[in-house]
Amino acid sequence: MIRRLFPHPWLSVTLIVTWMLLVNQPALGSLVFAIILGILIPLLVAPYWPGQTQLRSPLRLAAYVLLVIGDIVRANVAVAKIVLFYRSDDIHSAWIAVPIELTSPEAISMLAGTITLTPGTVVTDVSACGRVLLVHCLHAPDPDAVRDEIKARYEARLKRIFA
Question: Which helix (H) or strand (E) holds 130?
C-alpha cells in the first residue's frame, strides 16, 4: 500500500523539502501543498520511471554534494577572473566530448547537472547511446585535461555512489 502511494519515496521527500525552501515560509498551508506535490508528482511520473535507483552509499552522496558546492564556489571565482581580466584572445573556449561509463539514467543526469551547475561549463548534448556527453567550456586551454578531470573528479565518484 505504501509503495503504491509513494513509488519513489526519495523524490517525494526531495519535492517536499524543495517546495518548503522555495516558499521560504514555514506555514501549514505550504506544508500541506508540498505534501500533495510530493505524492502526486511521483504518482504521475511512475509509469515513465519504472526502475528504482539503487544508492550504494548515501554518505558518499552527501560528500559528493559538498564537493560540488566547493567546486561551484571555486569555479565562480575562476569565471569572474576570466571575465574581468582576460582579453578575448586569451580565452580558449572548447567543445569536449566526454565518454562516460555510467549506465544509470539518474547517475548520467547527476553528472550532466553537476557539469552544468559548475560555472564555465555546460553539458549541451548526450549522445543517442547515452555514452558521450558534449560539454562546452568557457576556458579550456587543455581540453583533454578537462575531460580527464570530469571523469576522475565526478564520474568516478558517481560510479561508487550508484549501483
Answer: none
Integer CA distances (angstroms), 92 to 65, 101, 110, in order: 29, 27, 26
In contact, 121 and 138? CB cutoff 8 Å: yes
- pLDDT single digits (tens) 83-113: 999 998 999 999 999 999 998 888 999 999 9
Query: Would you say residue 135 has pLDDT above 70?
Result: yes
Residue with cell 498551508: 29
The model's pTM is 0.77
Domain covering 58-161 in this structure, CATH number: 3.30.70
Contacting residues for 142 by C-beta, under 8 A, at least 6 apart = none
Residue ranges of domains in the chain: 2-48, 58-161
